[in-house]
Design goal:
Elements: H1 2-14, H2 16-35
Length: 36
């Protein structure tokens, strides 16, 4: 079970950069919509 839990943790760490970039893009889109 620990091995199965260890793999998703590594995947999450690997996608942290992608998630952060997507978060920034979504935030920018929300700000543009609110400004408009």
């Amino acid at each position: 079970m620990r091995r199965k839990i260890g793999k998703p943790l590594r995947d999450k760490r690997g996608f942290t950069l992608i998630e952060s970039v997507l978060g920034v893009l979504l935030f920018a889109l929300v700000m543009t919509v609110v400004a408009a």
